[in-house]
Amino acid sequence: MRAEDLIGTWWLEAYRSIGDDGGVHEGPLGADPCGLLFYAADGHMSVSMMRSPGTGPGFMGYAGTWELSGRQVIHRVLVSSHDYLVGTRQRRDAELADDRLTLHAVAPAASGRDGRRLLRWRRMTGVGR
């Protein structure tokens, strides 16, 4: 995987929590979350995610810079909807297959939520979902 392979816009297909037992569960934004992830060639990034419209409140997002280091994407958070993320480096194990990007993350300790997260993204090539 090369950094150039990640540049562009990605639509969130799945956001799941993975328990200590390896079981996959609904993530913090419900069963059918919506989201956009942008990776720019100049090293900037932005992610915005929410529950599906009409399913209740829930939003999280941040923006900053990014880099690829081996098979990890590192997000340096400059602004966020969650104070505890500002100034952190969020590391994501990354897998790329065709137009699907899977990012594996560990929930930050300051979030009060332990565990691992799996986020699956699909490259957007047009307008809308």
UniProtKB/TrEMBL annotation:
Pfam families per record: Lipocalin_5
Organism domain of life: Bacteria
Record-annotated Lipocalin-like domain positions: 7-52, 59-123
InterPro entries with a match to the protein in the record: Lipocalin-like
Name of the protein: Lipocalin-like domain-containing protein
